[in-house]
């Protein structure tokens, strides 16, 4: 698969570990950064990853920050992105079967490397179930922007 990855300083170490492991398993990686443990702002590393997913350049995206929460909040602002923060393999499986998640979010400060590999492995290999979940996803896509959003020019 083509996988776009991004992380802040809280996810940098886990991103590097996963990159090596994923490349060793034959995946092609686009790395949107960050490139060190220096403190950065997590929203700055979301855009490149989600744009790659939305355009189809990447099959999936993986985002990592310390808790996974900031990356989740940011990625889910993009229409068409279904980003799922997964802390265990069961959440990873459900996020694919029920939610057709196209971005996996990991918590670099809560999830060890071996657990993260299990999560990623299941997440990349589990198919969307379809069926009763399709109209639910459609309802998300049909949501309007918030009523306090600025009007388009
Ligand atoms: C960075 O200290 C931390 O706030 C960030 O990695 C993430 O956990 C935010 O949600």
Mean model confidence by pLDDT: 96
User: What is the C-level CATH assignment?
Assistant: Alpha Beta
Radius of gyration, taken over Cα atoms and rounded to an integer in Å: 15 Å
Structural category is: alpha/beta
**Overall 3D shape:** globular
Low-confidence stretches: none
Proportion of residues in extended strands: 15-25%
**Bound small molecules, deduplicated:** D-ribose
Q: Give the name of the CATH superfamily.
A: Sugar-phosphate isomerase, RpiB/LacA/LacB
Q: What kind of oligomer do you see?
A: single chain
The count of DSSP E runs of length 2 or more, i.e. the number of strands, is 5
Features:
globular; 5-stranded parallel beta sheet; 6 helices; binds D-ribose; alpha/beta; 153 residues; Ribose 5-phosphate Isomerase B, Chain: A
What is this structure, in a nutshell?
The chain is α/β, with parallel strands linked by helices and 153 residues long. It has helices at residues 12-24, 47-55, 69-75, 89-97, 113-125, 133-141, and strands at residues 2-7, 28-31, 60-65, 83-85, 103-107. The chain has one domain: Sugar-phosphate isomerase, RpiB/LacA/LacB (Ribose 5-phosphate Isomerase B, Chain: A).
């Amino acid at each position: 698969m083509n996988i776009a990855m991004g992380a802040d300083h809280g996810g940098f170490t886990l991103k590097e570990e996963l990159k090596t492991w994923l490349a060793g398993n034959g995946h092609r990686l686009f790395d949107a950064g960050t490139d060190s443990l220096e403190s950065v702002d997590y929203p700055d590393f979301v855009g490149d990853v989600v744009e790659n997913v939305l355009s189809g350049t990447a099959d999936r995206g993986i985002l990592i920050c310390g808790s996974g929460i900031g990356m989740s909040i940011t990625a889910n602002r993009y229409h068409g992105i279904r980003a799922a923060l997964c802390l265990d393999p069961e959440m990873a499986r459900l996020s694919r079967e029920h939610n057709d998640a196209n971005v996996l979010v990991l918590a670099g400060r809560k999830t060890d490397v071996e657990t993260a590999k299990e999560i990623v492995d299941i997440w990349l290999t589990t198919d969307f179930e379809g069926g009763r979940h399709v109209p639910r996803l459609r309802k998300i896509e049909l949501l309007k922007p918030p009523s306090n959003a600025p009007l388009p020019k």
